C-alpha cells in the first residue's frame, strides 16, 4: 500500500469512494483535489482517499473514505495522520471536521468533540459546514503544535 498526493486523474475514483459511503461529493472538484491524498494497493488501484481544505489559519479534514475491504487495516489512520502533518507543515493551527459515523475513530486520532459555536466563522461559512453536512453531524477539532525542525530542538546543556 502506498499513499501519495492525489492528481486530476484520481478525481473520478475519489468521487466514487465518497458516493459508496454516502459522503458529500458536490464540491469535490479539480480545485479541491490539491489537498487530497490517495491510498493505492500494490496494483495501483485507489483504495482510500482523504482531503484537507485550507481555510484561513485552520483546515478542514474531509472525505476520508476507504474501500470496505481495507477498513481496519490502518490505512485510514495513516491518511488522517499524513493530512494532519500536511496541515502542520502548511502552518495551520487547527484541523476541524464533521462526522456522522466515525467519532470514536477521530477521538483515537487526537480530535476532540466541540460545539459548533466554537468553530471559527470562516470555517462555519464554508460549503461543507453550511450546506453539505447535516446539522446532526458531530463537530470535532484537533489543535496542531508547530513542528520544530531538528535544528531548533532544544538540547540539554552540558556542564
From TrEMBL:
It holds the Pfam family Acetyltransf_7. Keywords: Acyltransferase, Transferase. InterPro entries: Acyl_CoA_acyltransferase, Bact_Acetyltransf, GNAT_dom. Residues 1-145 form the N-acetyltransferase domain. It comes from the Bacteria. GO terms for molecular function: acyltransferase activity, transferring groups other than amino-acyl groups. This is Amino-acid N-acetyltransferase.
Amino acid at each position: 500500500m502506498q499513499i501519495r498526493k492525489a492528481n486530476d486523474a484520481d478525481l473520478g475514483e475519489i468521487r466514487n469512494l465518497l458516493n459508496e459511503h454516502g459522503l458529500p461529493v458536490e464540491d469535490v472538484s479539480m480545485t479541491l483535489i490539491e489537498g487530497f491524498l490517495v491510498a493505492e494497493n500494490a496494483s495501483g488501484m485507489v483504495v482510500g482517499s482523504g482531503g484537507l481544505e485550507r481555510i484561513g489559519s485552520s483546515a478542514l479534514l474531509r472525505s476520508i473514505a476507504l474501500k470496505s475491504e481495507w477498513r481496519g487495516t490502518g490505512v485510514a489512520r495513516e491518511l488522517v495522520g499524513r493530512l494532519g502533518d500536511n496541515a502542520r507543515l502548511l502552518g495551520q493551527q487547527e484541523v476541524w471536521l464533521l462526522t456522522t459515523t466515525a467519532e470514536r475513530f477521530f477521538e483515537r486520532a487526537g480530535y476532540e468533540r466541540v460545539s459548533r459555536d466554537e468553530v471559527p466563522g470562516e470555517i462555519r461559512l464554508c460549503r461543507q459546514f453550511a450546506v453539505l453536512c447535516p446539522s446532526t453531524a458531530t463537530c470535532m477539532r484537533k489543535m496542531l503544535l508547530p513542528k520544530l525542525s531538528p535544528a531548533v530542538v532544544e538540547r540539554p546543556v552540558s556542564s
